[in-house]
Amino acid sequence: MTDAALAENAAGETELLTPEEFESAIRAVGAERYHNKHIFHKMLHGGQMNKGQVQAWALNRYCYQDAVPRKDAALMARTDDRELRREWISRIHDHDGLGQEPGGIERWLILTDGLGLDRALVMSKKAALPATRFAVEAYVRYVTEQPLTVAVASSLTELFAPGIHRERIAGMLENYSFISDDVMAYFKRRLTQAPKDADFALAYIKQHAKTRAEQDACIEAVKFKCNVLWAQLDALHLAYVQGMIPPGAFVPTA
Amino acid sequence: MTDAALAENAAGETELLTPEEFESAIRAVGAERYHNKHIFHKMLHGGQMNKGQVQAWALNRYCYQDAVPRKDAALMARTDDRELRREWISRIHDHDGLGQEPGGIERWLILTDGLGLDRALVMSKKAALPATRFAVEAYVRYVTEQPLTVAVASSLTELFAPGIHRERIAGMLENYSFISDDVMAYFKRRLTQAPKDADFALAYIKQHAKTRAEQDACIEAVKFKCNVLWAQLDALHLAYVQGMIPPGAFVPTA
What we know:
Distance between the termini of chain A: 51 Å
Oligomer: homodimer
Number of strands of chain A: 0
Helix content of chain A: 55-70%
Number of helices of chain A: 12
CATH class of chain A: Mainly Alpha
Order of helices and strands of chain A: HHHHHHHHHHHH
Strand content of chain A: under 5%
CATH architecture of chain A: Up-down Bundle
């Protein structure tokens, strides 16, 4: 079976995928739908954005960062599997920080500080595009409402993240005078965090998706999550590349 | 106080608005943010769309129709005010139908039938833009989670609906050979349903929003709802006017 055929989530197929086929089908979703394929990311990494457009991206993407620990807490709230919670909690530590470690959301705010954005404005989320918040909150709801294994699977876009983060670090440092090494700290940290988390989640769904229907639902979950990411870039593109900023949203002055 | 100043939801203002000021502030939100201001609607009503674009609009907008009775049931589920439920239930009748009356969703499907779309595809919602579904479901969640008076207020875009429906009926019948009188039945019916509902909701919030903070939250609710509608047209515009159709979404052949 080709990756594409697997990713098609063949309705009516009942034969269980082997772990290798299952993983291939999930990776095929990323190859087709992960947001590194979006023109906005190509422009962002390629130095084709002005500072105002990079600000808009960082301000909107903050809403996603802000949702991640809530999403992870929602997942933990649903399971009596203490081992799963003990593993999953590190994701909350990564974003919220723990003890002396300030965490990924703070590192994101260092990025928005570095771009000259007002922290209170960023943290209020009020200047973000409504479409950003609709997409991000859909992800929180998905993890709250879907079967647990499917909720775990929706995190698996992390399989595709290190590539985009490496591209981003290199591309943004090279192309933008207003981006310095220290403000890219968020992405550097994610280079090591994301693969660890993805390995765990992949092993988890291989073990817990016991029917073809459950496997297919996990593959759909990765599509859903790709849609969440893609929709955010679509909204940024229309507003800040095409210039159709919706009423009330951030208007760059930089 | 000007309408614009009222609509700004002046932070820190504590003086209660008079019922007239309150209503003016809500109407000012519509004047600025209702989706009849969106370029996509101007193009749709002005005959500047091809059949594939009108199909994409109708297929996506189905997701909104589909969500409305769930949203209304969510509101009814939250109140022990029997009179409110007895009034509000007519909204569910309007969309789902009752007895011999097939209801608004069925009338919407007559529109999509008339446009040559497969009913099963439309009803599956699978070919809709992810952004459409994120926006629509955000509305259902909003009504589920916000204070009851604020949830009622979020329906008040109906104050602005008859104007757009009149424009739409005239504009679409005049401009598109593939739109016939009978497929516009949905909008004709809404010309009388929407004002009745809006009058009730407006009277309700005037009576129940007893503090300035509650009044401001109601004004915000109308902004939120305008954002839900606007984001749907933004997504349609990028996909079907700019041609950036996201992976997996409806691709017109007409």
